[in-house]
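task queued by scheduler; priority normal; single chain, no ligands, no partner chains; default sampling; output format set to C-alpha cells
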Amino acid sequence: MRISQLSTASGVPIPTIKYYLREGLLPAGEQTSATRAEYGESHVRRLRLIRALLEVGRLPIAAIQQVIAAVDDESLGMHEVLGTAHYAIAPAVEPHPGDEDWRRARVKADDLIADLGWRIHPDAPTRDELAQALLTLDRLGMPASGESLRPYVQTAVDLVEHEIGTIPLRGPREAAVEALVIGTVVRGRILDILRRLAHESASAHLLDDSGE
C-alpha cells in the first residue's frame, strides 16, 4: 500500500507517519521508485503500537524509541520485551536513598516481594513505586502490613492470571506490547473506577437510610 493508504488504514496523518519514519520509529517501506514506497501490514501494526504508547501510555518519543528498539531486538525474549514496556509506562518515582524513612520503606517493599516469591528484577521501577506508596501510608499514620495488603495481593494475582491470557504472546511482538500497554493502563483505570463505584454502593448499603 502507498503512504496515503497506510494513513487511511492506520488513522495516522501522513505528516505524522513521515515524522515517525524520520525518527526511526517506523521502518522504511519498500522503495519502488525515487519518490514512492510500498508499505504492508507490519507497518499498520507498528503504527498501532506507536499510537498505544503515545496516546494511552503517554510516553515521550525517547521512551517509545526504547520500547520499539526492544521489540526489534530479536536477541531479547518476550519477557524482556514486555518488561521494557512495563517499565516505560511506570510512573516516575525519585528514590531518596539518603532518607532513612525511604530506605526502610524500600526494604519493606523488597521484603514483601520476596515473601510473595515474585520474580521481580532488582532494578524494577515498580519496587520504588511500592516503596513510595508504603512510605506515604506510614507518614499518614496508616502503616500497611503484609497481612493488610493480602486482599490487594490476591486481587492482583487473580487479575493477572486473567490478563496474561489476553496478550497474544505467539503473534507479532507489536501486538503483544500493544495489548500489554492498553490492558495495563485502560483496564487499570477501569479497576479504579469499579472500586470507587463499589465503595459508593457499600456506603449506601451501610449508611444511607433514604432507600435511594
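post-processing summary
- The chain has a mean pLDDT of 92.
- Residues 40-207 form one domain.
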